[in-house]
């Protein structure tokens, strides 16, 4: 299992555009080979801060998606909405209750 968390800072004037973009492509992303979970989270105190949380069967599945035409479309558009540099973490689950 491979877990990826990405923090995105979206400019206030593009929040709705970003949410619509995610809504449009969420099923396509989630249905990528090896993806078993995809969540979009929003910070409670900063409306422009979002996180994606995704679970992949292995790192190579995520890399395959990151090299796909779909990723180019989604990430290429999302980059235009940034108000800050994105941050990403690859994490291991140690405990699940």
Q: How many strands, what sense, and barrel or not for the largest sheet?
A: 4 strands, antiparallel
Low-confidence stretches: none
Radius of gyration: 13 Å
* Mean pLDDT metric: 97
| Series of secondary-structure elements, N-terminal to C-terminal | EHEEHHE
Give the N-terminus to C-terminus distance in angstroms.
16 Å
Main-sheet strand order equals: 2-3-1-4
Q: What's the β-strand tally?
A: 4
Shape: globular
Written overview of the protein:
The two termini are 16 Å apart. The protein has a four-stranded antiparallel β-sheet. The protein contains three helices and four strands. The chain has helices spanning 15-30, 59-66, 69-78; strands spanning 2-9, 35-42, 49-56, 87-91. Helix 1 (15-30) packs antiparallel against helix 3 (69-78). With 97 residues, the chain is α+β, with helices and mostly antiparallel strands. The protein is globular.
List keywords for this structure.
single chain, alpha+beta, 35% helix
Concise structural overview:
The protein has 97 residues and is an alpha+beta fold. Helix content is 35%, strand content 30%.
């Amino acid at each position: 299992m491979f877990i990826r968390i990405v923090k995105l800072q979206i400019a206030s004037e593009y929040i709705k555009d970003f949410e619509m973009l995610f809504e449009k492509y969420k099923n396509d992303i989630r249905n990528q080979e090896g993806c078993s979970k995809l969540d979009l989270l929003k910070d409670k105190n900063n409306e422009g801060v979002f996180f994606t949380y995704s679970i992949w069967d292995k790192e190579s599945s995520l890399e395959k998606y990151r090299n796909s035409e779909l990723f180019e479309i989604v990430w290429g558009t999302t980059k235009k909405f940034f108000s800050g540099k994105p941050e990403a973490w690859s994490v291991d689950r140690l405990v699940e209750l």
